[in-house]
Amino acid sequence: MRIRSTSARPTVRTTALASALAAGLLAATAAPGAAGTPAPAPASAPGTPTTVSSGWSIPWGLSWLPDGSALISERNAFTLSVLTKDGRKKQIGKVPHVVTTGGEGGLLGVAVSPHWRTDHRIYLMHTAADGNRIARMTFDGTTLGSYAVLVDGIAKNKYHNGGRLAFGPDGYLYATTGDAQNSALAQDTTSLNGKILRMTPDGEPAPGNPFGSLVYSYGHRNPQGLTWDAQGHLWEAEFGNSKYDELNLIEPGKNYGWPTCEGSCTTPGMTNPERQWPVAEASPSAVAYADGALYLAALRGERLWRIPIDGTHAGTPKAYYTKNYGRLRTVAAVPGSASLWLTTTNADNNGDGGPGSDKVFRIELR
């Protein structure tokens, strides 16, 4: 493993809101206060999807720019595009050094810097010749450039490469990594595989990480979903093997079981999921928070799950769009509105569509 960084120190948001959310993230299982039970979550539900844009091939990562447009990666084409809210698509370039694995590798997650207006930085996770890596580039609104590797030494394989990137409310960058089809790596806290990683914007271990390394939590098989709720709790979705997929509430240093446990178990030291599904009903590739609920996009299950949350409690899931739109890849809450964007993955080796058959949908929450 090599961690590469510049000498610049990260700028961490210190607003009251960010501090409160960060505190919540480190105390995800705190009980409700003495004032009583929290109010019930809003009862909004997703409406009928409308097409924002078509002609995509495996749109994988999605991150919002300050103007409300989205930066979207296409896994096998290695390209980045900007998509505006009214559906105008502009390809801005190819990311260098990306290779495919003939399965789940390629250009995966993308995260726009919280300070993009001043630093013009974007962050990418992708498969390279020597493994998976996290890189940083610049994008000034027009030109893509200045590629630099921040973290490498993350093992790759045809499947189980993880790949989601997101900045947390604490200002640090989080990444999900798969076990690279070597399940023992998930329990090895010296390995970067089968983990959630937490780092500074320069790729260094974030202060407060439980092992003094990039590792934030471990025991994950193939996590691809990350989101934070309104209280700052970190939620994660991951692919199971043959029994159960999982929705987990993430706390630093916790062991989420794989490969000893798949779904809930009674093994000491293992943290059970908040919710689990038979793999035929889910295969969750992303999770987003909006309006009191988590939304989980399912590939094999070809549906969108809505899971109401109340504090650290995940309520009863309900499925929407079952088998109507094919394999659902990425779901993301649209900033400043009660709506979601949802992308499909029907052009991959498990789908039934050819190149250009994927879409980006908008869903209003009502």
How many β strands by DSSP? 26
Total helical elements: 2
Which second-level CATH architecture applies? 6 Propeller
Provide the CATH topology: Neuraminidase
- Sheet with most strands: 5 strands, antiparallel
Kindly state the percentage of residues in helix: under 10%
Order of helices and strands: EHEEEEEEHEEEEEEEEEEEEEEEEEEE
**Strand percent estimate:** 35-45%
Class from helix and strand fractions? mainly beta
**Could you say how many structural domains there are in total?**
1
Structure description:
With 366 residues, the chain is mostly beta strands. The protein has one domain: TolB, C-terminal domain (Neuraminidase). Helices cover 4% and strands 41% of the residues. It has helices spanning 16-25, 116-119; strands at 2-3, 50-56, 59-64, 70-74, 79-83, 89-94, 107-112, 121-128, 131-139, 144-154, 165-167, 173-177, 195-199, 215-218, 222-228, 234-239, 244-250, 275-278, 284-290, 293-298, 304-310, 313-314, 318-320, 328-333, 339-344, 358-364. A five-stranded antiparallel sheet has the order 1-10-9-8-7, with no helix packed on it. Strands 19, 20, 21, 22 and 23 form a five-stranded antiparallel sheet that branches. A four-stranded antiparallel sheet has the order 2-26-25-24, with no helix packed on it. A hairpin with a 4-residue loop joins strand 9 (131-139) and strand 10. The longest helix is centred in the first third of the chain and has 10 residues, at 16-25. The protein is globular. Mean pLDDT is 91; it is low at 2-39.
